[in-house]
Amino acid sequence: MASKGQKFKIYSEELKAEVIKAKVELGHGYRYLSEKYEIPEGTINSWVYHYHQDSNRIVAKKRGRPKKEENIDYKERYEILKKFQEYLKEVDREKK
Hints:
By secondary structure, this protein is mostly helical. It has one domain (about 15-60, about 70-95). The protein is about 55% helix and about 0% strand. It is built from four helices and no strands. The protein has helices at about 15-25, 30-35, 40-55, 75-95.
């Protein structure tokens, strides 16, 4: 597990493609590739695993919640919230 503040090494997509090709097509072993490219065996293993899982796609999918790029009108949202609060007060009065 990653420790707090840990920086991860970022590998280029070209290097990933080259390593995956060497493993899948040429049949080189993880240890050989690890020593040749100076990349941990586990990292290469995960690249190859994801390559097979994602229909032979080298570039990984973006993970996490997608960011919304819309302009939010906060004044309009505030007015809607005020109306909703008034509605809740009316409903609460009717119950009593």
